[in-house]
Specification:
With about 80 residues, the protein is α+β, with helices and mostly antiparallel strands. The chain has 2 helices and 3 strands. It has one domain. About 30% of the residues lie in helices and about 35% in strands. The radius of gyration is 13 Å and the shape is elongated.
Length: about 80
């Protein structure tokens, strides 16, 4: 689909251990809109959004974290 989640690190917020993922554009064949975004934002190392997921989180917590991160994506 032209993007990937790169695992960045564990972070601790308010005593809770969280996993940090960065959503980045891929190289190669991608949609025109992603290609345009990638070219304007430092290439494949640019971060589209960051997803923070509680370590040991439930499926619904993971889905909620991803949906929240996606709502922060700007063109």
């Amino acid at each position: 689909i032209g993007v990937r989640f790169d695992y960045d690190d564990e972070v601790t917020q308010n005593g809770i251990v969280l996993h940090k993922f960065q959503w980045k554009p891929n190289a190669g064949k991608i949609t025109a809109s992603l290609k345009y975004w990638r070219e304007r934002h430092r290439g494949t190392d640019s971060v589209i959004t960051t997803v923070i997921i509680k370590r040991g989180g439930t499926k619904s917590e993971v889905v909620q974290a991803v949906e929240e991160a996606m709502s922060n994506v700007k063109a």
